[in-house]
Amino acid sequence: MEKASAFHRHPPPRHGKLITILSIDGGGVKGIIPGTILEFLEKQLQEMDGHDARLADYFDVISGTSTGGLVTAMLTAPNENNRPLFRADQILDSLNICIATSAAPTYLPPHKFETKTREFNLVDGAVAANNPGLVALIEVTKEIKGRNPDFSPHRAADQALFSEDHYLRIQDDEMSDELNAMDNATEENLKKLKDVGEALLKKQLSKVNLATGKHEPDERNITNEQALKSVAETLVNERKERLGYKG
To answer: GXGXXG: where is this motif (predicted)?
Structure first.
């Protein structure tokens, strides 16, 4: 049994300056890559804020589709002490077991079940919502339009105007066809995907040119690893500000 943690519950965004969102893409077995990135980020948070720190302690919304949905569930599912059930470094082993639970069409059949009122035949969420980041933003917008007092519309508007300053996307768009396969779950391929994630941490930070759709080096000239360390520092400072909020 895990001991109860002294870590405080994540305070609402109205007590801070930011609305924090974590979006996790899918991709079958390629979920090992974001799993590797998230493991690094959580370790940075633990170094700065204590070993009990978990990713769910720092984000207002966590979204994911397909395998990203599995990772999201693992990061946010509570244990008996209402703390995250899994650490980020436990994701990779579990993904190797649970990867088949994403019912991606042509790979796996729909998942069918019934309740007292209706029947469901469900497929991979990425079929309808392939961009979990957009889904997360829609949910935040609903909270603002619904006048949830925990979400400040003025703060959200300010963030929208300067979102590039607080936006980080890490993606490898140069993978081979072999590694891009969503269902190659051989031990050799899983190791290669883990290596891709670790190499991605060392790559220079890039951003998408909206005119060409291509990734270009970020003008800050830092690695993804350095960018994640900066994100961790921002998240820790945001959490501390919320915890110290006096109203």
So the answer is: 26-31
